[in-house]
Design goal:
Length: about 120
C-alpha cells in the first residue's frame, strides 16, 4: 500500500512557474513508476507526465512538452513536476499516481494503482 500526498499547487499568472511535489509513504517507492495527471472542470482526467522507476525514461503529453519536467528523488520518496511557462489552459487539479508493475502504458490512467488527493493549479491570464 502506498499513500501519496501532493503539494505545491496555487494561483499563478500566465507565464509563471510552479513546482508540484508528491510525497509517498512506504519503503518501496523506487519500485513504482510514477505519473502526473490533471483534470479540469467538466473534462476527463488527462495524462501529463510519467517517469520510470530509476528515472531512466520520462514521458510527456504533447501539450506540456518543453514546458514541464518530471523528476524523482527515490531517497526522499518524492516525485516532482516542474511547470514553467504556464498557460490558463493548464488550470486543473493535478494528481500524482503510482504504478506497481512499471511495464509501460503510462499515459493510461487505469495502469496506476494508487492516487493522491490532488492539488489545485490555477493560472490567470
Amino acid at each position: 500500500q502506498v499513500q501519496l500526498v501532493e503539494s505545491g499547487g496555487g494561483l499563478v499568472q500566465a507565464g509563471g512557474s510552479l513546482r508540484l511535489s508528491c510525497a509517498a509513504s512506504g519503503r518501496t517507492f523506487s519500485s513504482y513508476a510514477m505519473g502526473w495527471f490533471r483534470q479540469a472542470p467538466g473534462k476527463v482526467r488527462e495524462f501529463v507526465a510519467a517517469i520510470t522507476r530509476s528515472a531512466g525514461n520520462t514521458y510527456y503529453a504533447d501539450s506540456v512538452k518543453g514546458r514541464f519536467t518530471i523528476s524523482r528523488d527515490n531517497a526522499k520518496n518524492t516525485v516532482y513536476l516542474q511547470m514553467n511557462s504556464l498557460k490558463p489552459e493548464d488550470t486543473a487539479v493535478y494528481y500524482c499516481a503510482a504504478d506497481r508493475q512499471g511495464i509501460g502504458g503510462y499515459t493510461r490512467y487505469n495502469v496506476y494503482d494508487y492516487w493522491g488527493q490532488g492539488t489545485q493549479v490555477t493560472v490567470s491570464s
